[in-house]
Amino acid sequence: MINRFLWVTVVLVGTVFSVQTQNLANPFDFPMQLSGSFCDLRAGHFHAGIDIRTQGTEGHAVHAVANGYISRVSVSPSGYGNAVYITHPESNLITVYGHLQRFTKNLTQKVKEQQYAQESFSIDLTFDSTEFPVKQGDIIAYSGNSGSSGGPHLHLEVRNLENNELIDPLTYYKSKIPDTRKPIIRGIIVYPVENKGIANNSARKQKIDVTYDANENPLIKTNIEAWGDIGLEIRAVDRMNGTNFSYGVRNIVVETDDTETFHSNPQRFFVEESRYLNTYTDYAEWSESGHFYINTFVEPGNNLRFITARNAGIISIDEERTYNITFTLTDIYGNKSVIPLKIKGKEQKINSVDTENLLLFGWDKDNRFTDNGIRLSIPPGGLYKNLYPNYKILESNGFYSPVHQFLDFPVPLHKPAQISIRIDSLIPDSNTDQYGIVKVKNGKITSWIGGSYMDGWMEADISELSYYSVSRDTVNPVITPLNTAKWRENKQIRIKISDTLSGIYSFRGEIDGKYALFEYDSKNALLKYTFDNERVPPGYHRIKLTVIDRCRNKSVYENAFTW
Fold first, then answer.
1. What's the confidence (pLDDT) of residue 14?
2. What pairs with residue 142 in β-bridges?
3. Which string of DSSP letters, residue by residue, matches 513-563?
């Protein structure tokens, strides 16, 4: 098969580079339709590829999209699940295929050998160019729903071979996936800058609903009067032909009185940049409502390369007149929406807060905070902007320390911070492995952070400034065998494992005292062992399964079976 290449020049918001564009093949035998696009907004990260629909079913043959060789295979109960990485030296690319059901026979054999050798279900293997060469169109695996997938589909990534930078796969698939639908804005937030701006006589952000008439013209009925410095946020999605899925918007431009103030064009990014999503969007709004609003202003700690902004995207309202704002949304196909917004400049009193004597957390500083029973250390670059913490000690019910509050709303951290909380009521002679830091909301645990015990203190790394306390997990994991009467008929052992608080840390399956490979589906809390004639011949056998949670509480299940 002849591969054809085209050199094109791409401008990435001020950066010019060349990309060798290859006609990558469809990985399936049916037309491509997407359920997710590149740089979609996800919890804590940008989506790194495209999600290709598989009609809600698994087991479809996945083909190599170009010549190359399988350079890596990974197996995990979460993340990409079963994944294949193919290196394409001819085009200087790597393609990644995630959430697979299974690999091809020879690849499965290699993976299984190493899983038994390492006595681990989770595994990450690399290969040279001679072990598993592939041609465009070769079957490399079968589609599935493994890992953290929310339903059957194929996750496909394209990466730069030289630096592992993620590239929008639609660059290579535009001709295979038609799209004539334009992006839309579903909501706007006017965000007064703290101590510097006001909107409708309030320092709080103002939400604006955006509706559309029968001709898809935007309708904005909310009147906004503002003064001082304001930022704008938008809730925007793209749409594609033949589906009701929503996707991320490729190109966003904001203009104020015909002057561009903000431009976002995410064509590519590094994995290490993905966490900047927490400053690219309104984190507090997402935490509260589950909706992503994109900040069309740039916080000091935001180093995303695909953004440019004038005056950091902040709009200064200092004249009593109408300010004409224009949002222009464009997808990779050139489908475009233009949404106008009028803000009336009206002088209003800005009630600023005196911060001279307040504690300041600087976004680029080494911040350290100590109070009765609490220590916090945030490294430089851990925050996206300066903050004045509103620290409070709250009463706790059922915890082993007070609840420590840093702010009235959650704040994301770009780099982990270290928190230490003193345990006020350590039970004498108790196992300190059972204690851990927890995140709390309205008096209830929302997540287990864990950590290590040292001289009456629990220490852990956190990724968010929120509400924290100390709890204890004394409950063993639960092991539930499923339909044991059918094990022999189905040639498979199926067992549910769960833990109520700290979560599963490890598991080990043995048959007749030897390691047995149990596949783990973490989202369904399911372990599966498929009978293997070579390692476990037909006959009478004994199974032993040991499950340990993150607080080292242990459960053991033992039984006999025949097959």
1. 42
2. 61, 102
3. TEEE--EEEGGGTEEEEE--TTTS-SSEEEEEEEEEETT--EEEEEEEEE-
Tokens standing for residue 341: 């917004």
Q: What span, in angstroms and rounded, lies between the C-alpha atoms of 169 and 149?
A: 19
Q: Which uninterrupted H or E stretch holds 87?
A: strand 82-88
End-to-end CA gap in the chain: 48
Backbone angles phi, psi at 384, to 5 degrees: -95, -20
Q: What is the per-residue pLDDT for 8?
A: 39
The CA–CA distances, whole Å, from 356 to 352, 360, 388, 407, 455 equal: 12, 9, 11, 18, 36
Q: How far apart are CA 384 and CA 303, in angstroms?
A: 9
Residue 358 DSSP one-character state: S
The answer to whether 87 and 132 have CB atoms below 8 angstroms apart is no
> Is residue 510 within 8 Å of 561, Cβ to Cβ?
no
Residue entry with tokens 């409502």: 289
Inter-residue contact 304 to 276 (CB < 8 Å): yes
Q: How does DSSP classify residue 503?
A: -
Residues forming beta bridges with residue 75, ordered by sequence position: 123
The Cα 252–Cα 298 span in angstroms is: 14
Are 76 and 126 in contact by the 8 Å Cβ rule? The answer is no
Q: Output the pTM of the full model.
A: 0.93
State residue 21's pLDDT score: 56
**CA–CA separation, 455 and 468 (whole Å):** 19
β-bridge partners, 460: 419
pLDDT (0 to 100) of residue 3: 37
Beta strand pairing status for 336-345 and 225-237? parallel
DSSP string of 370-407, one letter each residue? EETTEEEEE-TTSSSS-B----EEE--SSSSSPEEES-
Q: Tell me phi and psi for residue 210, to 5 degrees.
A: -115, 120
- Where helices occur in 275-382 by DSSP H, the ranges are 277-280, 283-289
Residues in the chain: 563
Strand 68-75 versus strand 61-63 pairing type: unpaired
Tell me which residue of 223, 233, 231, 227 sits closest to 198, measured CA to CA: 227
Residues lower than pLDDT 50 in the chain: 1-20
Tell me which H or E stretch contains 57.
none
CA distance 268 to 532: 44
| Dihedral sign for Cα atoms in the order 36, 38, 39, 45 | positive
Beta 519-521 vs 514-516: how paired, if at all?
Answer: unpaired
